Amino acid sequence: MTTIKFGTDGWRGRIAREFTFANLDRVAQATAEQFLSDGNGTQPLVYIGHDRRFLGEDFAARVAEIMAGNGFQVCVYNQFVPTPMVSYDCYAEQARGGVVITASHNPPQFSGFKIKLPFGGSAPPEYTAQVEARLDANPPRARSLREAIAVGQVQYIPPSEKYLARLASLLDLDRLRAFDGEVLVDSMYGAGGRYIEQLLQGGRLRVRTLHAERDPYFGGVHPEPMLPQLQPLCDEVVRRKALLGLATDGDADRIGAVDDRGSYLNTHRMLAILALYLIRKRGLSGGIARTVSQSVVVKRIAERHGLPTYETPVGFKHIAALMRTHDILCGGEESNGLGCKLHIPERDGIFSGLLFLEAVLAFAKKPSELVADIAAEFGDFAYDRRDLALDHIEQGLAFIERLRTEPPRTAAGYPVRDVGTLDGVKLLFEDESWLLFRASGTEPLVRVYSEATSPEKMTALLDFGEQLVRRSL
User: Whole-model pTM?
Assistant: First the structure.
């Protein structure tokens, strides 16, 4: 029997290997029992969405049968929807919870199961641990979809107008539409579809969406909005002389960006621009949350403005948890997840993309100019990440445990000033450069990250890190 473990945001597995209908039944039944016992929300209602992956509609329909069999009213979206739409509807209707069938940015052969709660975000680790504990406690209880629809227990609903109205209320869409220029959007064949284009239509702004159609193979790449996947968008921004390129991942909760010169803007730079916009243009305050793999620059921006910073493990759910208990202005993770206090405690690629465009226009500068201004004011750091494939997940976990007990004293000739173990092992250097090692909990990978005061130092640290991993195998 397949062992079911929830990772940084949900349970994921290869379709027809781990992610089967039999295993889906087990997870859906355990989730239904947890929904029944936790008392969250005011309505015995569950929202179910899916992205554009293979069998998404069928997996969603089966979850609906399990939820109906456990006595819930069920709303299933009648087409693909962005994950944050499900999160917002759970919040707006105070539903018991939601389920999204998606593997997010994972390769096309994967599917997944995300749990959403009525506060408008992902189930935290302690919640998914309770779901895991309920696995196989009872056999699946299901009601046939045809019967549940006939009696009104299951309804198929269109994409949420409430969610779109919410975004419109948080943004100055009239100002965005009035800009005389072009913005490109790459939906990466995912659930982002044409939502950004739809929200921005009707003015002088020209929005062109790439890869808006459905392709379960995502054009042959995994739908993660970063390089090298976004190289076609980089090239198209230059060719069309666009102001900005935006890209959403497979379920549209993550955002990537490309500046006017066709350079990829990683989340470190995006979060820095957003933070300065919210502070200096919108006049907002609050703490800034960042995962252990996020930039030093964000920390410096917070310090310059007298705001606290919070460091969390990787995974936006940790930032979301802070947003529920602290006054958090904005937060971000290295893998393209951004959020802010204006919206639900959830990363939302569509909202974040629109807010980023609003920030660029508010500063009345090109994105490349904003990047240069921030580097001049707060320091210029080079960043990159390498994903090193292993044979087994356990190899990565064992490597991190050894490194935790015996970290190196120097790396690439640079003395290690301190060692952080909040998530993985992070080597810290005197000039605030760092080198981070993390083992994936869902794939046989060790990720090696570095940010340094020069590209040369960053590359040297990454080379050292990769060699250290290779020697341990």
Answer: 0.93
